[in-house]
Design goal:
Helix 3 crosses helix 4. The strands form four sheets. The chain has a five-stranded antiparallel beta sheet, sandwiched between helices. A three-stranded antiparallel beta sheet has the order 6-7-8. The protein has a three-stranded antiparallel beta sheet with strand order 9-10-11. By secondary structure, it is of the alpha+beta class.
Length: 418
């Protein structure tokens, strides 16, 4: 069993999250413990009661507790068993006498339940939440595993209890509730991955068929720094009605994202060099005859390469997504040698020597039209010298002491006596 505790300043947010799940048919209310009012037919009574209890201590800001108990997919628990385990858990962490709502959810591959409560007592006392996970939850969780014969958290495959972006079901317009599906993707990406621009964020969201848009140039959305999220089809075309960022619970608006950009840029910097080495080694020692082969080699290292293509079908940008470190880098951010132009030169282009000039000309190979790409990027000539070395070769080569430097230059200058 895995227990997760989230504390916040709003009791309504976790209540409405679970209540909406019930209304959509993805959850059911298992129990309403220590409630003085009827909540089975009038669920709003529950949040009113919790709010009144929270109001007893206006000086306490963090007064909402949202707990999820997650069980192994191999365990088959009845509603009664799950409810009893939840009651014993709440008793063990010191919330046995608190009013709380217990919901069972059916929207995941493993059985789990959610608990909504407050840490404010009827006598105006406050239950301490400091290190509640380590000091209270963990000992109780282990004791319940032994008592009920549950599969221990250490033995469970953590992938079943977390969202894996590449294995998760993509959002397909018309198949599921659009807002709910997009919200699930945003919750799995925005707080987890380290990106520093909207383009980098969209590279990850694109793995789920979701995109964030600022609106067209001069539009009211762009002028007001608004943001909408849309569903994409398999061809990358937008489908359905866009949904405003402000309508989602976590408010993934553009100003909130921009605050993350700066922090993410600092947090991801320590992973930059290791990613560059992986890409360089792949280019140097793997037979990358086309962009598709290069992508496959990176994929085997849990790195996703996302291409940005213009309206003419030419590749103008590359984005690297490291699934292990949860970092996102545009190629130009890593360095000029990792940009789209440089990668196309090293992968897509075969070298054909021109006997008249002694230079080699780049010709297209594999997927994509490299000549078209080179024409659109006039900053570099399509001809390269035969003895040109890659950046990695230049860095790794041994420099001999016996070079052609004049001996006079090697001598140290004598200091002038004062």
């Amino acid at each position: 069993m895995v227990a997760r505790i989230k504390c916040s300043t709003s009791i309504r947010k976790p209540f409405h999250y679970n209540d909406n799940k019930v209304k959509q048919g993805y959850a059911c209310l298992l129990a309403a413990e220590n409630m003085l009012l009827e909540v089975d037919t009038h669920p709003d009574n529950a949040v009113l009661l919790l709010e009144k209890q929270v109001a007893l201590r206006p000086d306490v800001k963090v007064n909402s507790v949202h707990i999820s108990l997650n069980f192994s997919p191999d365990e088959e628990l009845s509603n009664e068993q799950m409810a009893q385990i939840a009651r014993d858990y709440m008793e063990g962490i010191g919330f046995g006498n608190q009013p709380y709502l217990l919901y069972r959810h059916f929207d995941s591959g493993h059985p789990h339940c959610h608990i909504v409560t407050t840490n404010i007592g009827l006598d105006k006392s406050r239950i301490s939440l400091h290190q509640i996970g380590k000091l209270k939850s963990e000992p109780v969780r282990k004791e319940l595993e032994n008592r009920y014969g549950l599969i221990k958290a250490e033995q469970q495959n953590t992938k079943t209890l977390t969202i894996n972006p590449l294995d998760a079901s993509k959002v397909i317009y018309g198949k599921v509730a659009t807002k709910q599906a997009i919200s699930k993707v945003l919750n799995a990406v925005i707080p987890v991955y380290k990106y520093s621009s909207l383009a980098e964020l969209n590279a990850v969201l694109g793995l789920y068929n979701v995109r964030a848009e600022q609106g067209n140039n001069g539009s009211r959305i762009e002028q007001n720094k608004g943001l909408v999220y849309r569903v994409l089809d398999h061809d990358g075309q937008c489908k359905g009605v866009p949904i405003k960022a402000s309508l989602f619970a976590d408010k993934p608006t553009l100003p909130n994202l921009e605050r993350r950009f700066l922090a993410n840029d600092v947090a991801r910097s320590k992973y930059k060099d290791s990613l560059k080495i992986k890409i360089d080694v792949t280019l140097k020692f793997k037979n990358c005859s086309s962009l598709k082969v290069f992508q496959d080699h990176l994929k085997s290292q849990d790195i996703r390469l996302v291409t940005r293509v213009n309206e003419h079908g030419a590749i103008y940008g590359l984005t690297y997504i490291d699934l292990k470190s949860k970092t996102v880098f545009n190629g130009s951010t890593l360095g000029k040698e990792f940009s789209a132009k440089a990668i196309m030169e090293r992968i897509h282009l075969a070298k054909i020597v021109n006997p008249d000039t002694g230079f080699e000309r780049a010709t297209a190979l594999g997927k994509g039209n490299a000549d078209e790409f080179m024409n659109e990027n006039n900053s570099a000539s399509p001809y390269y010298r035969l003895d040109e070395k890659s950046a990695l070769e230049l860095l790794m080569q041994y420099e001999y002491a016996a070079s052609n430097v004049p001996s006079e230059w090697k001598k140290k200058k004598k200091r002038r006596k004062k």
